[in-house]
Amino acid sequence: MTRNFVIITSFVSFIAFSCLSGCEKQTDTGTICKNNPELCNDLHADSWCRYEKGDLIRNRYKLKFTESPSSKQIYHQLLNLEKYNQCIELAAGVQHILHPERTNDRLRAFGLSAQSLSQLQDTTKNSQDLYLAFYHWTRFNDLKAEKVVLAAYKAYQIDDILLLSRVASYYQKFDALQSNLIYLQVLDISDEENFNPDWLLGLSNNYQKLNDLELTYLLARANVLMTKQNVSEEMMLGLIYGDKTLQRFLDQQAEELVDVIEDGEFSSSAIKTMLLRSPPTP
Question: Which InterPro entries does the record associate with it (predicted)?
Answer without folding.
Answer: DUF2989 (IPR021372)
